[in-house]
Sequence to fold (431 residues):
Amino acid sequence: MTNQSLFEKAQAVTPGGVNSGTRGLPQPIVWERAAGAYIYDVEGKGYLDYHAAFGPIVLGHNHPAVDQAAAAAIAQIDLIGAGTTELEIRLAEKVAQHVPSAEMALIFGSGSEATYMAQRLARAVTGRKKLVKFQGCFHGWHDYLLMNIISAPEKIGRKDPASAGMLPEAIENTIVLPFNDIESLERTVKGQAEEIAAIILEPIPHNIGCVLPQAEFVRSLRSLCDEFGIVLIFDEVITGFRHGLGGYQEKLNILPDLTTLAKAIANGYPCAVLAGREELMMRFSSAGGDVFVAGTYNGHPVSTAAALATIAELEDGTVHKRLFRLGEKARRGLQEIADRLDIDMTVAGYGSVFVPYFMSGAISRYADLLRNNTEADTAFRNEMIKRGVFMLPLAMKRNHVSAAHTDADIDRTLNAAEDALKEMMRSRGLR
Ligand SMILES: Cc1ncc(COP(=O)(O)O)c(C=O)c1O
Fold:
């Protein structure tokens, strides 16, 4: 079977042949196997993987300890769906131990469920309707927050719902602000304080690559929320565990009221967590409160065991040291190549994440990224795929180093990048 022939079968039975709107590729690839830093298609071609399934793969694909824990769990127990398990108790304990703002945790199957529950809880505890999000941040597929992610220039400053079929009331009640802009934040919060239930943000907006938060902006968020009784939600679905077991809140030393975690929490197994202050979390119906929470697969033993095994691998800090060192090597190496070739590139990133933007100048919010040369960005990724290095061929999407990547893998990536960029200079006149 070839990629092409199998993909044609996929298209016959699945809309577009893929199970997510962001999984389409310019050339059909049907995956067969994954191991460590590599992924393999049905034709046996191997790729060095930086996509990491949009971020979960932090230890490397099919990590033996994680897979063994998952296998041991399923050999012993499957889904019971009443009461709890020791695995669930241990995972909530671990989250409370490591994430500074977490006192209690609920376990879900996906990040969207966690952010959905976070906004519902915030609305319930405040008795208010409105949510504030930031341009460029993504918080999952539900109506309440699915807007203004990678917006067209003419949509900035206006509501930009990302889907047809969304409830107009949901769109109306979500306010979108520019990231790192204290003035608009203060103006909005002070003007509508009595209506705002929650402010939610990716502490690093990684859905547009990597835009670092300014310390003063995050401090303002915390103090405005305190002053006006607004729930502050850090969506750490990407940053949580990938950048440290304490999430990015630990690095910022600013604590949210609620935190959502997913992706790297279980190295690829479907697991997510909503964690927060006990006083808020006790409003959930699981504790007899009035905020309905449920989910047949919540706290599934396989995912929960995978999360515990992932945490165990991360606990002594050596993995994060390695991730940060290799990430820095990739960032510096790429920037050095682009500078030497005189290409307009800014390599952004943090920890294990690196993002080559095809632009120069400061980046503090989404509008700055409109200077990114999207065509060159996408072309570069496709050139890398041709050279056996898998970077998602969508502009601004982040690359992730995993613990399975080696120095030799990064060297190989840098060689491929230099070759790809030179080819783009020759064939497209890239500068
Ligand atoms: C920051 C952030 N929050 C929430 C989500 C939604 O998570 P899921 O796809 O697991 O529903 C994502 C997914 O990419 C994300 O990046």
Notes: Residues 54, 110-112, 115, 138-140, 202, 207, 235, 237-238, 262 surround pyridoxal-5'-phosphate (CB under 6 Å). The chain has a mean pLDDT of 98. Residues 52 and 105 are 26 Å apart (CA to CA).
